[in-house]
Amino acid sequence: xxxxxxxxxxxxxxxxxxxxxxxxxxxxxxxxxxxxxxxxxxxxxxxxxxxxxxxxxxxxxxxxxxxxxxxxxxxxxxxxxxxxxxxxxxxxxxxxxxxxxxxxxxxxxxxxxxxxxxxxxxxxxxxxxxxxxxxxxxxxxxxxxxxxxxxxxxxxxxxxxxxxxxxxxxxxxxxxxxxxxxxxxxxxxxxxxxxxxxxxxxxxxxxxx
Amino acid sequence: xxxxxxxxxxxxxxxxxxxxxxxxxxxxxxxxxxxxxxxxxxxxxxxxxxxxxxxxxxxxxxxxxxxxxxxxxxxxxxxxxxxxxxxxxxxxxxxxxxxxxxxxxxxxxxxxxxxxxxxxxxxxxxxxxxxxxxxxxxxxxxxxxxxxxxxxxxxxxxxxxxxxxxxxxxxxxxxxxxxxxxxxxxxxxxxxxxxxxxxxxxxxxxxxxxxxxxxxxxxxxxxxxxxxxxxxxxxxxxxxxxxxxxxxxxxxxxxxxxxxxxxxxxxxxxxxxxxxxxxxxxxxxxxxxxxxxxxxxxxxxxxxxxxxxxxxxxxxxxxxxxxxxxxxxxxxxxxxxxxxxxxxxxxxxxxxxxxxxxxxxxxxxxxxxxxxxxxxxxxxxxxxxxxxxxxxxxxxxxxxxxxxxxxxxxxxxxxxxxxxxxxxxxxxxxxxxxxxxxxxxxxxxxxxxxxxxxxxxxxxxxxxxxxxxxxxxxxxxxxxxxxxxxxxxxxxxxxxxxxxxxxxxxxxxxxxxxxxxxxxxxxxxxxxxxxxxxxxxxxxxxxxxxxxxxxxxxxxxxxxxxxxxxxxxxxxxxxxxxxxxxxxxxxxxxxxxxxxx
Lengths: 209, 597
Prior knowledge:
The complex is a heterodimer.
Chain A: E1 20-24, H1 35-46, E2 47-48, E3 53-57, H2 66-71, E4 74-80, E5 90-94, H3 114-124, E6 130-136, H4 150-153, H5 156-169, E7 175-176, H6 194-199
Parallel strand pairs in A: 1-3, 1-4, 4-6
Antiparallel strand pairs in A: 2-7, 5-6
Chain B: E1 3-5, E2 11-13, E3 17-23, E4 32-37, E5 43-49, H1 57-60, H2 68-72, H3 80-95, H4 101-127, H5 134-137, H6 142-152, H7 160-176, H8 196-216, H9 218-224, H10 254-284, E6 300-307, E7 318-325, E8 344-347, E9 380-382, E10 385-388, E11 400-403, H11 412-421, H12 425-438, H13 448-478, E12 498-507, E13 510-519, E14 522-529, H14 531-535, H15 547-552, H16 564-572, E15 592-596
Antiparallel strand pairs in B: 1-2, 3-4, 3-15, 4-5, 6-7, 8-11, 9-10, 12-13, 13-14
């Protein structure tokens, strides 16, 4: 069943004005690659934030996320990280330790990964004053149409708690959400919420692990 | 046999040294190019392989067709809107839904905005650095840079002090050393031809393009609600319009429309005063580099885009025409019918999939995605560490799409060749002007630079068309029509038990099609052929090579260990491979690995 109701117009359009950007990165269609997105969804479902905080599902948009990154004074990223750790390891990385990298030998825009966005933002002279990354080491990426693996899913609450802790240190006070999240305030379209996503998954095919 | 001539007329010679350019991506392959060069380092054979598609049925089968747009918006990190648009169109086609006038205008505006945005970002952030040497910019004279900039454009940011500031900023950045800012490049290669001043001007505009990008993307937020993943709706657009009452929550009001209008003006200004003059200036130093034409002088394809009146896909009503040209015969434009089982077909004889009969192609409605990964007898290395592919066997995760059996090039150059051949004034005029300014014949279009030039011209075209569409939409709204969606057939109970449809879109990168079959209100089969599948296509059973492969032939390389010439031509297509995946690692991604054997 489609979760969109006719007449539900989604969130109110707003000019992109905010100080703090909480940015989930990744691709929900590739198993643990979806961690960052699922984590900001969980964060947004459990907490509300004062004005000036934007919680965003950034997908895998790479260079196209530049406008938001450059606008942010505080940037908190949630993402899968490859630090060669045990799958499911959760890490908080802050400030200059957040990796940034840039190169031009790439072949496709897709290789303009988020690290390059950070680097280019720095070159442009508009770089967040404070930056932190909450990341988890993935177990499995190569499962097209799959969802989070158990060891990674179990880290979502911990990642949400870490994110809240970082925001508090930055002087931002999230409040526990005591009402159900209205559809218009979701970070992504309801069509992709994790329950429907998993429930509606077609049977895995041979050759598609 | 090392020397052959392909069915589509290209001479191949595999006897020379093999050069492999292989970007690494953690999830399966990205695009990989292998070429053979002769003793003079001229490319005599080219092999394009990649992983783009695993079959959308893997994620969509059994789901609600009205939800498909949200899933396909995630298959690709760059082309979100175009997939969503093709998807809602496929469902509307299957169910016979007519969209309202405003929805058509808004979709046109969003797509035109996407053209402007994508082309601009592609030119400055991906492609310009194939022609512009950033390190050389450090030694430019800012005063002479200013004189150069003022001689080609009225763009106000052009004083010597401005360029000096940018140069100093760039120096500090390079000297900070923590990044190697523009690391991993081939700076200083003899293939770079611009003087330092032109390099500084272009790098400066690279930074300005970044600033401008902040403005331009607001259009998608206004009409699509969420950004960077806008909302779409089967039957129209999910925004409401209220120009009388600014208090209506969530409605697009006059203030928003004025902002859109303002962004349109500024995008016209930036494209015409910065992008186009830069393109001309850069091209004037590379006029002799006429390589990379490939299929463009033979076979090109466009599905057409931007219906002026809603729901009418005839060429008279399309701002960007549809059609196909074969064998370079510009006097004959063929009609394209994506529903005809004999026109668009995909072959897998050289792809890592199985069909019951691989000598034949399958129309997407009957598409099958059955993986079959095996290397040919002449491949080198192992399945997990391929050193060289065997292109006589299966060698790519991409299927080979063909139009009436022909390999086709798609994208801005294909559209411009078709529009030019049709004599469309808004396409032919600016093309002739640009060729005239550079002193080049029409045949110069069939090249890597022609592809790059067509993209620039099209960015300008799209920027101006935004104004026309916006004005038409405002007139319609002022006449009292504020409908944005047709919900008559929203409820599945109103659908027939079986339906099939096709949604076409001319994405910035080229012809995109989504084919859907609906059974008992659920998706039964869903197939897409994306622009880069056409262009990066492997060979087919008849031996036709694809657009990338053809475009690389005959190109001399200054140094095979620095494949700048290969990147130039491949970048000119704006490749888009749905790896759509990234993981942050401490030392950054590994980019291209070059191996010469």
